[in-house]
Amino acid sequence: MTMKDLFGKAILDFQTNNSPEDLITETTISEEDEMSVAYLFRSYDEMPNLEQKALQLSKGKILDVGCGAGSHSLSLQNDRNLDVTSIDISANAIQACTLRGLKKAKVQDVMTLENEKFDTILLLMNGAGMCGRLKNIPNFLLKLKSLLSSGGQILLDSSDIIYMFDDDEDGGKWIPSNDDYYGEIVFNISYKGEKEKPFDWMFIDYNTLQNAAFSNGLQCELIMEGDHYDYLAKLSI
Fold it and tell me: What is the pTM of this model?
């Protein structure tokens, strides 16, 4: 079963005024929830502090991985006149990005990107989660590292979702463990009555990210913490 690209379809519908509706999301640890596609089209002023900070720190030649509707890239391209390449595996999303005026938007899986170097690689809106499972993070980080130019940086935000789990009697957290990392979830998305094939996603807490970075020859620095278990980190060689 191939992906229907419903997430991208919602983005393109919104961009082209084709009767967009809310996306319905559900995960292994959360109930069904409605997500307004309009949120993906936010301006710099509407972005959370962590994302604004990441954009402020972005410099040089930039790669925006999993760019979605392209809002981060647009801000960097139009407000700061920076050289941004925006990639996403969703053809619909990339079409919307191009319609929005992004100059270098292309359908591309970062794992198959070759022969290019970037000063800043952005993985915003929990972009590191795209590797799906903790066991995939070494290959994912090594791939990103290979795309960094000398002195380059990877900026990513994520959340420690420990707060989603219930407290046990000792005041600790009860985590359903069968050797899986608690930040691993399965996402289900529906749009306009169609269901997407479920896909793996991951929220990585800072300590786990830091350990993975060090193991793969990267420095890791906590840049900023958000209000709700979320953070912005910078990885560099």
Answer: 0.94
User: What is the per-residue pLDDT for 176?
Assistant: 57
d(CA 10, CA 5): 9
Domain boundaries of the chain, sorted by first residue: 6-161+178-236
pLDDT of residue 155: 98
For 167-188, the pLDDT digits (tens) are 666 666 666 555 689 999 999 9
Q: Is the pLDDT of residue 120 over 70?
A: yes
> Between the CA atoms of 23, 108, 51 and 42, what dihedral angle is there, to the nearest 10 degrees?
-50
Note the CATH number of domain 6-161+178-236.
3.40.50.150
Structural contact between residues 91 and 5, judged by C-beta atoms closer than 8 angstroms: yes
